[in-house]
Design a protein that fits this description.
This protein has 296 residues and is mostly helical. The protein contains 13 helices and four strands. It is globular.
Length: 296
């Protein structure tokens, strides 16, 4: 017999509607400019990344879920979808049904997050993963070729060769150019992900957003939005420290090719690691709550 999540939280209509409205307004501040650009065919290398790289659609991010074990009084099942059912006290997520579909994913995410949290943070990469993604490419070949590189292709390559690359994140490493891959200190794979990810990595911290939405609707949408907000801020640093010149978009460069720039980068990287830690802890706690109930 599967244990239920207890005790249930019961929200009156005024309370849950206020939470839903606040979430939608928060999401709209991110989504409205993106959707306007998409309608106009305008691309933005910083602001659009979370909507193009990750699989969560704008409408999914905007849609509010209370999380597992929450009962909504006076809620219309049609507004929340097939995974909700009406009970004596109100509408609630069919946690057993969703958890059964997501069991393997919950375990995988929990294991990765805990392994990452248990390692010391490393701050010596200086964001060179973005440089390795354009290494030995021409301006026409680089991914964001509508935007110029700050240095010439030869000078960009020289920075990579001089500094070396210390990337531990597979989903960054897989976008390295072929000649850049042998220059990396590690050879990350999907299979080694649990053994390599560490809490100082910008991409590991950005991926908290991915892990949170893969747990939705079992986790509250406010947690997903918190992870999105962090990922958005990290992406800004990621591109400011990249080899691209985005000053026309209002992004001053973090010149990691200089001592001063590397110092600036590490300070920001440490700050993001500190912001990510409680989010990672919250996600682990949500996974533990779900897994404990399924084992009961």
């Amino acid at each position: 017999m599967t244990a239920a999540l207890a005790p249930a939280t019961v929200l009156d209509a005024a309370d849950w509607q206020a939470r839903r409205r606040a979430h939608e307004e928060r999401a709209d501040a991110w989504l409205t400019p993106h959707l306007a650009r998409r309608r106009s065919g305008v691309k933005h290398p910083v602001e659009d990344f979370l909507f193009t790289y990750y699989s969560y659609r704008p409408a999914q991010l905007r849609r509010w879920h209370p999380g597992a074990g929450v009962v909504l009084r006076d809620a219309d099942p049609a507004e929340f979808g097939r995974d909700y059912h009406a009970g004596a006290d109100g509408l609630t997520l069919d946690t057993e049904r969703v958890r059964a579909r997501r069991a393997e994913s919950i375990t995988w995410i929990r294991t990765l997050l805990a392994a990452t949290a248990g390692r010391p943070a490393q701050f010596g990469c200086f964001g060179l993963h973005e440089w390795a993604m354009v290494y030995r490419q021409t301006q026409d070949e680089v991914r964001h070729n509508a935007w110029p590189l700050r240095l010439s292709p030869a000078a960009t390559a020289a920075v990579v060769e001089e500094r070396g690359v210390r990337c531990s994140h597979f989903d960054a490493f897989r976008f390295f150019t072929a000649p850049a891959r042998p220059l990396n200190l590690l050879t990350p794979t999907r299979e080694s992900q649990h053994a390599l990810e560490q809490p100082g990595c910008l991409h590991a911290n950005m991926d908290l957003y991915k892990h949170s939405y893969k747990l939705s609707p079992l986790v509250p949408s406010e947690l997903v939005a918190d992870c999105f907000e962090l990922a958005r801020a990290i992406r800004t640093l990621d591109m400011r420290a990249s080899p691209y010149d985005l000053t026309d978009l209002g992004y001053s460069p973090v010149r990691i090719e200089t001592i001063e720039g590397r110092h600036e980068y590490v300070l920001a990287q440490r700050s993001f690691a500190e912001r990510a830690a409680p989010l990672r802890t919250r996600l682990i706690a949500e996974c533990d709550r779900l897994l404990a109930a399924s084992d009961g």
